[in-house]
Design brief:
single chain; about 475 residues; alpha+beta; Uridine Diphospho-n-acetylenolpyruvylglucosamine Reductase, domain 2; Uridine Diphospho-n-acetylenolpyruvylglucosamine Reductase, domain 3; Alpha-Beta Plaits; 5-stranded antiparallel sheet; about 20% strand; FAD-bd_PCMH; FAD; flavoprotein
Length: about 475
């Protein structure tokens, strides 16, 4: 039995176009598409459309536009800000790209990969690895997040300090625009000054300007030498000083540099299986350092030992463990990647994905911690993240035994408290998660005036009916 508010004519046309596996209307089948990963938003949809080709996606969008039906693009559904969740009206359709999951080409000369939007990041990474290459983007949700969603949100991740965000890695795109037209800018060119860079307009637009269907992604040679270490440091300043020490010696060797607070690490050790602390005792803060090189004979171990040796002598590092095998390296990274899951298991949490200039990170963490602890006594402040590029996930976990709903009811107060400090330090309230529907209310004060007005004009020009992912990025007028 179907559950849908679609007009009969549209229902029939979509069913004929997409077939039984591509057109879902039963609420049992559509439920998982209507809830975000954090379970903050529970929406409804008229149907879930799962096109298998760009042509089918374009035709489906054209049909929806003709009937005035809102559309919510969705990839792996891993958004942290409700960016791929429909509202509660049940009028929208979700357009999922998961069936568009082919790896089309790997080009060794150009060092590129051409993939459809529904390919998961992990699948793309594995395909590159089989060819002796590396897709350098790495995020915690890479097993679920797909290429289309990653580009639509301009995901960053662990290796941004060396390779940049998704924006820097995408050379070409194909996308279905809000009117159903197919935009094809699938070029592999590093240099192409022929008007507006339309791919960059779509990257980071969170599905509000179109549905990315295919992409050309830059690859790198697979590292043949890699050294990874987990270090105990006294605080965020200590982690930043350690980063500066490695950067002074050889900035090109740093592939990732991650910060973890003692509170966040403690949750991982307590709540995640097979993630014990591999150091002799807990510390106030930790840094995960990874050096990498495509040269097999690169002396990265010597570099790692020299920098850490000096850090031990100065008291900057009190303990450290170096990975002696690929298994040990993966175990160290597992500890880092499980921070979000551990916080989820610890109860309700409020996530602040912020960025500030590197020099301001210690001041930010100190001031924001004090402010949040004063706001909600007993709150567990659990920051971690990409300290090498200035992006800290300043996450706040409910006090032990507190009511989750009561805690989340204060989410705006907590986010505003953190954001006000970020603003004074010249930062951004969203570094890599986007705006979604969670943080639209912040846009007028942060991006108001000519900036937000220009965004609205672009949106209105490309999507005059406001049918493509309505309710995301832009605050309600």
């Amino acid at each position: 039995m179907s559950d849908t508010s679609l007009p009969p004519e549209l229902y029939t046309a979509l069913a004929d176009l997409l077939g039984p596996s591509g057109f879902l209307t039963n609420s049992t089948d559509t439920a998982s598409y209507c809830t975000d990963w954090r379970m903050l938003y529970q929406g409804k949809c008229a149907a879930v459309l799962r096109p298998a080709t760009t042509a089918d996606c374009a035709q489906a969008v054209t049909l929806c536009v003709q009937h005035g039906v809102p559309m919510v693009p969705q990839g792996g559904n891993t958004s942290m800000v409700g960016g791929a969740t429909p509202d509660e009206s049940g009028k929208a359709v979700v357009i999922s790209t998961t069936r568009m999951n082919r790896i089309l080409n790997i080009d060794h000369a150009d060092l590129t990969m051409t993939v459809e939007a529904g390919v998961t990041l992990k699948a793309a990474q594995d395909a590159a690895l089989k060819e002796g290459l590396m897709l350098p983007l790495s995020i915690s949700s890479e097993g679920s997040a797909d290429i289309g969603g990653i580009l639509a949100t301009n995901a960053g991740g662990n290796n941004t300090v060396r390779y940049g965000n998704a924006r820097e890695l995408a050379l070409g795109l194909e996308a279905v625009m809000p009117d159903g037209a197919v935009l094809n800018v699938m070029r592999k060119l590093r240099k192409d000054n022929t008007g507006y860079a339309l791919r960059q307009l779509l990257i980071g637009s969170e599905g509000t300007l179109g549905i990315i269907t295919t992409a050309v992604i830059q690859l790198q040679p697979q590292p043949r030498t890699r050294e990874t270490a987990l270090c105990a440091v006294p605080n965020a300043k200590g982690a930043l000083d350690l980063f500066a020490a490695f950067r002074k010696q050889d900035p090109a060797a740093i592939q990732a540099f991650e910060y973890m607070s003692g509170t966040s690490m403690g949750l991982v050790n307590a709540l995640i299986d097979n993630c014990p602390l591999p150091l002799s005792e807990p510390a106030a803060a930790y840094a995960l350092v990874e050096l990498a090189s495509p040269r097999a004979d690169d002396s990265l171990r010597t570099l790692m030992e020299e920098v850490l040796g000096a850090a031990f002598e100065s008291g900057l590092v009190s303990d450290a463990v170096l990975a002696e095998s690929e298994t040990q390296r993966q175990n160290l990274w597992m500890i880092r990647e499980e921070h979000a899951e551990a916080q989820k298991r610890a109860g309700a949490s409020v996530k602040n994905d912020v960025s500030v200039p590197l020099a301001a990170i210690p001041e930010f963490i100190e001031k924001a911690t004090q402010a949040c602890e004063a706001l909600i006594p007993g709150i567990r402040v659990a920051p971690f993240g990409h300290i090498g590029d200035g992006n800290i996930h300043f996450n706040l976990v409910q006090p032990e035994g507190a009511d989750p709903k009561g805690f989340l009811a204060q989410d705006h107060a907590m986010m505003d408290t953190v954001a006000n400090i970020v603003r004074t330090l010249g930062g951004s309230f969203s570094a890599e998660h986007g705006v979604g529907q969670l943080k639209t209310y912040m846009m007028p004060s942060w991006r108001g005036g000519a900036e937000l007005d220009s965004m609205r004009k672009i949106k209105a020009a490309l999507d005059p009916q406001n049918l493509m992912n309505p309710g995301k990025i832009f605050p309600t007028a």
